[in-house]
Amino acid sequence: MSNNTQVKTERQANYDIDPIYLNRWSPRSYQEKDVPEDVLYSVFEAARWAPSASNEQPWRFIIARTKEEREKFYPFIMDGNRIWCEKAPVLAVLVSNTVTSKGQPNGSNEFDAGAAWGYLALEAARQGLAAHCMAGFFEDKARDILEVPEEFAIYAVISLGYRGDKEELSETLQEREVPSSRRPLKETLFEGGFGENAIK
């Protein structure tokens, strides 16, 4: 089943939106194929333009493209993710500054870093890449191995590359290699107060 067929089968928008939002999902199977530098940098260029409180832009990305660099990342990725993400040609760690430029705690840094990931994910889809964000990693190990300063929180590991055949995955993972659906908008959108449905 092609990616487009899978998306059409699993995902239907109730209101008119750009197809990029439906086409973006988080595969686990990757081709062992390099991502051209200009394509890769365009993905992070998109993240650069994400909104942030007071334009602090707290996010940073640490990437691994060579075999040696990726192997440096593997020890802090949990086995359940490592089993499939080792084929990805690019890995990235998303970190975010918890202190503002004025030396104050940045309470919105996590929210802003999430926005940067969202922009990155959409541009990756536009460029024909698969991007998968992982929370299954050992933060202390990542901090130690990558020498991340204490004021930076470590939020995610991201795999990037061209989507591969799901048959390359284990049987268990093959079952999960489909675009996930979403709950109806009427269950998410409230009006006037929590739980007050905006859409009847």
From TrEMBL:
Q: What is this protein called?
A: Nitroreductase
Q: Which domain of life is it from?
A: Bacteria
Domain annotation Nitroreductase: ranges: 23-81, 83-162
Q: Kindly give the InterPro entries that the UniProt entry links to this protein.
A: Nitroreductase, Nitroreductase-like
Which organism does this sequence originate in?
Scopulibacillus darangshiensis
Which keywords accompany this UniProt record? Oxidoreductase
Gene Ontology MF annotations: oxidoreductase activity
Q: Which SUPFAM superfamilies match?
A: FMN-dependent nitroreductase-like
Q: What family is it from?
A: Belongs to the nitroreductase family.
